[in-house]
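Reviewer comment 2.1 asked that we show a complete input and output for one of the modelled complexes. We chose the adenosine monophosphate case, as it is the one discussed in the main text.
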Amino acid sequence: MSFEQLGLSAEILKAIDDQGYTEPSPIQLQAIPPILEGKDIMGCAQTGTGKTAGFTLPMLRLLQPNANTSTSPARHPIRALILVPTRELAAQVHESVKTYGKYLALRSTVVYGGVNIDQQIKELHAGIEILVATPGRLLDHVQQQTISLSKVEILVLDEADRMLDMGFLPDIKRILMLMPSTRQSLMFSATFSPEIKKLADKLLNQPVLVEIANRNTTSELVAHVVHPVKKEKKGDLLVQLLKLHNLKQVLVFVRTKQGTSLLTRKLQREGITTTEIHGDKNQLQRTQALEDFKQGVAQVLVATDVAARGLDIEDLPYVINYELPNTPEDYVHRIGRTGRAGTKGNAISLVSEDEKELLADIEKLLKRKLLIEVIPGFEPEKAPKPALARDIRNTEKNKDNPDQEQKRSRSYDDTKPNGAQRLNPRVNRNSYGDSRRNRKPDDPIFTQPYVPPLASSNDTAIVEAEHHSGDRSHQRAYGQPKRQLPALFSPPVADKDKHKNNE
Ligand code: AMP
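Response of the prediction step:
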């Protein structure tokens, strides 16, 4: 089905065309029609699936009859509120609103913390139809009476799971009380925990469930590899991987802010251009760090989990877990930065003995064993038990049950079996758990033929060396084509208990 058939207006179609999108992504196909019918939506989709356009396009269409060029603020009440957890995501979503709504006389703005409030007040006073906001700053505006939510017709709660993780639930409840109860509500979440279900029950009215990625799973296009290593050797191993394989555009996750700075300095000492991003950095520093990374000025971006959400960098080829996250869901979020929009990605984890249980939790959540590969010279304390190819095959076989590949768009009550549609459903799996598409995928837009740049001499050497050694897994993990594209967007923010500072 094309965008034209979805019931969007000529102005919106023109904006889509300007973006070069020729077909809707699966989540757009599923979400746009029920939203246009005025239904509530519970969307289970990771970033990278096109979900922002999935809710923004129909939202603009629904608001279009109210578009006007009057200078009177009274003619521009807030009709749609998009709540997001972080300022970076807020800026990103607002960009999308402006992009897709550029031919409509609808006004929009974005409010988040960490920046001067006066400019925001000025724009709000002029009147806007669409507001993108983080909860803390939105409530600041409510308190200062610079905002009224009494005319909101559409509420979008984006990355709802992250909102809960960051402790925004009380703020969300307060905000809900300021809006008419007759509104249309759309909620999106990458993971689907019992808490999310509870919030959905409260917020949504007979919602349609649209679900793209399997709950709590990572993209099919991401190759995962675990390198067991002694804790104190992780830094050296990382340097070796980066230098030997000449990895470009690598997002490295660590657990703490202090760890971020230490690792950044180590990599810089090794001559690797590295920048860092974490909750203690101010907005300017974060923006600069991200920009350097996107532009290729920095080869490596070291980040805490604050960067795990909302960071949209096209074709980010590598995510490295220098340390595993404390919760397996965060692994999913971290890895969600790669393998986006139909491109292949690589998730590499350096795992020390004390992280064994975290790894087990991740494998349990993903319902699959991850490939384990010891790098010579970096052997761990204890020899790891390698995942048997047979185990991997079995878990993969279960996942690929073709009965589960039907497109889902169903009533929210019908949530029992996990039959979500995947972006690239039919895959062949070899004994390493690697996935190779064997047919034209459902959504060519997201899976346009990948044209790798000419491999550098370094790349070629790696692939050749691995070919000779017969180590195909290695080739998969590091030998994939790299492409540097302009990055699209920003990292999120904030430690749980400091969320307001970080908005
Ligand atoms: P999102 O999941 O909203 O973060 O979107 C991920 C990326 O997909 C963004 O860079 C969008 O510009 C892009 N995108 C969204 N919809 C489409 C589409 N129908 N065709 C191609 N790219 C798209």
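The CA atoms of residues 369 and 392 lie 6 Å apart. We note this here for comparison with the apo prediction described in Section 3.2.
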